[in-house]
Specification:
mainly alpha; 3 helices; 54% helix; single chain; globular
Length: 79
Amino acid sequence: GYIDGISGNVDLNYIDTKYATNNKSVDDILKSFKDKYIKIANDIIAGKYGNGADRVEAMRKLGADYDIAQAFVNNILGY
């Protein structure tokens, strides 16, 4: 996945605080992650990224995980 302030892909299942950037705490990094996916989910709900394969490709280009984005969408919509 992707986290603001970290170049390249990031293993979102593991955080080693010694690699946190700009003196951000783990809580700050997780908040950034959550904020990113809330924005993406709201954009998905608004129809910005299409459906199916188009949405999967859009998530790839954003450096976002499709399944995580969809989980945020489902949570927002109460599914």
